[in-house]
Amino acid sequence: PLTLGEVRMLVELFYLPYHHGPLAQHLLEHFRWLRANSLSVGVSAAAPDAGAGRRWRCRAQSFVRLCAQTCRLHTRLVGAAGQALLYDLHPYLWDIRNVLLAASAFIQWLGCQSITAPILLQGDAEPWARHGGLFGELQALLPVRNSSDLFYQPPPLFPSRQLYVLRPLRPWDQWGRDWAGRASTDLDLTLPERALPHVPGELLGSFLSLSPEYTFVLEDEAGPCGYAAGVLCAEGFLQQRDSGWLPAMRHKYPRDLAAGAPALGQDALEEALLFFHTEPAAVPLPVLRRFPSLVQLGMAARTLDAGASCSLALCLLSALRANGSQGVFCQVSATNQQQLSFYSKLG
């Protein structure tokens, strides 16, 4: 059964109309303060005001812990509450869990910005596009502009106890280095690495090489189960990819590589190398002018919770928007029905 402390947390999240409980107040206070003081993150440890950076990181750790506790509360409610109570409360707690996953990852991403200070632009969504209560206030604090579709996903008919962790990719992250090997073997993304583990991913290789600072990882209890990758300036990124990264990959993995490893499957190897030796489609200049940033998202087939997908999209869009992006686009093959369906469900 739920403990007294967990019941207290649940009550404080949904306290009174226009009045939050202590837990909800702490979450909002931390989030507002961390947003307002994010410029102190890049302060050098030797600087006179280095204490500001330490205070920011300390409060960021507290905020991330509070978010994790609330996400665990959602898992505990699904596993321990009676059916009637669960189906009454689950949609509301599920909403808060999803937005806290994105908020926690966004704050962790702010903590990684040590070179350029993010520009936290105010959201300009219409007031009626927002929910009420704690969820609505958290929604208003995420700089995602008019991406309100992501906040209106219906809860699953069958609540899941799966616990998710969403965070930015770290420079020392083993997941980023061997995505082409172990970590992506169960991702339903048509990745060629299933056949050739050492070829960088066609969907992620260029992002990890040229723009790793906008990559987020979603993990469940079995390991990495999703990713969101982005590029702030797609025009420059595409030029770098086509003039530098792709030629390097073609030199490293020539067309005749498949002939030397018949045991791995000839057809699969040819498919794996196709991406590197095919000229990518050009993006029209009007698209790049109106939507300057490029995004790519993917989820494992085992991840059925649409809320986790929305959280991935929210944290990536928040990071891009915080650094000034006015719009995003993604590239999907017209024959890839799975990816088309995935993006359509995000709204």
Would you give an account of this structure?
This protein has two domains: 142 residues, Up-down Bundle (Methane Monooxygenase Hydroxylase, Chain G, domain 1), CATH 1.20.58; 191 residues, Gcn5-related N-acetyltransferase (GNAT) (Aminopeptidase, 3-Layer(aba) Sandwich). The chain is globular, with a radius of gyration of 21 Å. Helix 2 runs antiparallel to helix 3. A five-stranded mixed β-sheet has the order 1-2-3-4-5. About 8% of the residues have low confidence. The protein is of the alpha+beta class and 347 residues long. The two termini are 37 Å apart. The chain is built from 13 helices and five strands. Strand 2 and strand 3 form a beta hairpin. It comes from Probosciger aterrimus. This is OGA GlcNAcase.
